[in-house]
C-alpha cells in the first residue's frame, strides 16, 4: 500500500474542486431583491440612495 498517501491527496483536491464548483453555481443564481438593490443606486454617481428622495449629487450637496 505505498500509494495510500497520494490517493488521499487526490481525493482532497477533487473534493475541494467539486466544492468550489458548487459554490460558483450558487453564486451565479439570481437572488430575489437584486433588481430592487440595482434601482436603489443613483444613475449619475452610483451611490446608494436612502429614502425616496433624490440623491445628494442631484441636490447639489455632493461635490
From TrEMBL:
It comes from the Bacteria. Keywords: Membrane, Transmembrane, Transmembrane helix. The chain crosses the membrane at residues 12-31. This is Uncharacterized protein. The lineage of its organism: Bacteria, Pseudomonadati, Pseudomonadota, Alphaproteobacteria, Rhodobacterales.
Amino acid at each position: 500500500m505505498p500509494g495510500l498517501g497520494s490517493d488521499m491527496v487526490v481525493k482532497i483536491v477533487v473534493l475541494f474542486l467539486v466544492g468550489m464548483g458548487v459554490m460558483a453555481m450558487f453564486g451565479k443564481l439570481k437572488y430575489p431583491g437584486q433588481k430592487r438593490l440595482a434601482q436603489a443606486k443613483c444613475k449619475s454617481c452610483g451611490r446608494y440612495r436612502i429614502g425616496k428622495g433624490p440623491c445628494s449629487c442631484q441636490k447639489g450637496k455632493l461635490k
